[in-house]
């Protein structure tokens, strides 16, 4: 077993350091360990790769990608901006608040923080900089706001965790609402402090008239219907998360084709092709990570790690801290999709030993993993935002730190006060919430 683990982990690290794409690194290290040091037939690697994407909830990932692309290409954010402008445009630093609000609404369609960072950043970062908010603050704000996209439903991390961890995806979605809203409010607070300190501008010199507000609401209220429809449908038992993704696409198609008329039928083939290409990468990572995780489970690595941790401490608080720190470190160097699948058996074994609720630990893992999208060197949302704003990464760190601290505080809050994380699922979908072990 020692030789097997050495080849499995060692070859993966070497391939990653050589710059081999993550999905290929996972596949090649899995195949090498099977051939050189395992009694598992190599053909099982292919079977497990197919099994990795042969799950009904996984179908929602490319569909949500399409919904996000429709919202972006359909310029839906422009109508949301006009609505926000009328409602709070007279407040100092209003454009920063718009950014957070629009990111939270977009979170109800994309399910991907990277896609949201590119979509929101291309609209807001140039405008924030032009209005005097500063490159570093603008980049940090958009990067952190984009991370909400992987916390507020839909969330690709939650789809993956629920599918592979035998936890209700609907319950995870609903459990992500409150932490996502808390992070959004925390970012608003940071923006208010910076707006006051640096005297950021107002977008309007007066309160909008009732007629202006009515005109903005008439066009801008419809995108807010996406998360309402998504959550309401799942809570009411009308559709599953996968079916909800299709409903979201249909809703956004109606908005962009017939109400706003910002896209045409001729645009759809190109958008479908772009969605297929964009979702192929995470799905391939998902598939190869499934084979890698299968080998870990086959050789009882989760039991070994669990026994090792328990031999050091049986304190549930310290075990929770170990899980959080592990995902923070790994999220710094690896995409969350394969990381969650690879670590899932170990995480659930530790949760079982510490008597954690499996839904609770799933929420902690998904939100902690989302923070990896901010931390370099992987930090995809930060890197995308820096590229759009033409800002050096080291310059963005200063405004990023207090925002990251707020988000990490939310992680600790839901980790050590489970009732905060489980309150909404217990209220709305009690049958889907697993019992907490005694």
Structural overview:
The chain is mainly α. The chain has one domain. The protein has 22 helices and no strands. It is globular, with a radius of gyration of 22 Å. The model has no long low-confidence stretch (mean pLDDT 83).
Strand coverage percent: under 5%
Largest sheet: none
Structural class: mainly alpha
Shape: globular
> How many structural domains are formed by the residues?
1
Helix content: over 70%
What's the N-to-C terminus distance? Answer: 34 Å
Q: Unreliable stretches, pLDDT < 50, 5 or more residues?
A: none
Entry summary:
The chain is mostly helical.
Task: Give short descriptive properties of this protein.
438 residues; mainly alpha; 22 helices
List the helices and strands and how they pair.
Layout: H1 2-17, H2 22-37, H3 43-53, H4 60-73, H5 76-88, H6 94-110, H7 113-130, H8 135-147, H9 156-165, H10 169-175, H11 177-198, H12 210-220, H13 225-235, H14 241-259, H15 268-298, H16 301-312, H17 316-333, H18 336-354, H19 358-371, H20 380-389, H21 393-416, H22 418-428
Helix pairs in contact: 1-2, 2-15, 3-15, 4-7, 4-14, 4-15, 5-6, 5-12, 6-7, 6-8, 6-11, 7-8, 7-20, 8-20, 8-21, 9-18, 9-19, 10-22, 11-21, 13-14, 15-18, 16-18, 17-18, 17-19, 18-19, 19-21, 21-22
